[in-house]
Write a structure and sequence with these properties.
Helices cover 36% and strands 25% of the residues. It contains 8 helices and 11 strands. The longest helix is centred in the last third of the chain and has 18 residues. The structure holds adenosine-5'-triphosphate. This is ATP-binding cassette domain-containing protein.
């Protein structure tokens, strides 16, 4: 369980307050107006910006941990694939940046490539892949790290609608199979409805506790309604 207890996350003059919990295995969307602090929330949980207050995962205090030591993987819109490394090496980088993986490690790489539908494509270069396939490489890298908490910040916004749906369904399926807890920032109400039973509303300087996505979207507060154009 992710537990944020009177957490304050600051970026320059901006401060976001959060008191909420996300149960283990929960898939939660993060919705709210532009500039409301959705990315700030993920950056704070990931350890990339300053926080004050309580933040635990399964009772373990995350605050003192550097980003790489947290039980967290992140996937952002810019997938940051290395153009000069093969697909397999891009994925292996998620486990060991020096790429000394050994036979077992490379077997795991091949396994996760299979999980994301890229079986046998490990020797390709990223530039020779479609946008959707590149997203799958980034997802494979995250899966290989095998961290229980996955943070997604509009990871598939650059994809066309059909491909985006396909990737969301793949993430949902892999998250369920691996028992992951997922927080996903999105600008698209359809993404939230498809992917997440519950949604965290980020607005007015506050990340609100998860509430049922359907109910929130059926009767959105004014600032969310204006943003979603409903
Ligand atoms: N590096 C920074 N330094 C100072 N303030 C920042 C920085 N990055 C973001 N902010 C401010 O923090 C606030 C929240 O930004 P954030 O990117 O978290 O919003 P968001 O909800 O993700 O927005 P969007 O939907 O437009 O991506 C904004 O007021 C923004 O100007």
């Amino acid at each position: 369980m992710l537990d944020l207890d009177e957490l304050t996350i600051t970026q320059g003059d901006f401060a976001l307050e959060a008191t909420l919990t996300v149960p283990q295995g929960g898939r939660v969307a993060v919705l709210g107006p532009s500039g409301g602090g959705k990315s700030t929330l993920l950056l704070g949980i990931g350890g990339y910006i300053a926080t004050q207050g309580g933040m635990t995962w399964d009772g373990e205090d995350l605050s003192p941990l550097a980003p790489g030591a947290r039980p967290i993987s992140t996937l952002f819109q810019a997938h940051n694939l290395f153009p000069h490394l093969t697909v397999a090496r891009n994925v292996g980088f998620g486990l060991r940046p020096d790429l000394r993986l050994g036979a077992d490690g490379w077997a795991r790489v091949a396994q996760v490539l299979g999980q994301v539908g890229l079986e046998g494509m490990g020797d390709r270069m990223p530039a020779s892949l479609s946008g959707g396939q590149q997203s799958r490489v980034a997802l494979a890298r995250v899966l290989l790290r095998a961290q229980p908490l996955l943070l997604l910040d509009e990871p598939f916004a650059a994809l066309g609608p059909a491909l985006k749906v396909e990737m969301l369904d793949l993430v949902a399926q892999l998250a369920d199979q691996n028992g992951l807890t997922v927080l996903m920032v999105t600008h698209d109400r359809a993404d939230a409805e498809r992917f997440a039973k519950d949604t965290i509303l980020v607005a007015g300087g506050r990340a609100h506790p998860p509430m049922p996505t359907q109910a929130l979207l059926a009767n959105p507060p004014a600032e969310l309604a204006a943003y979603l154009g409903t």
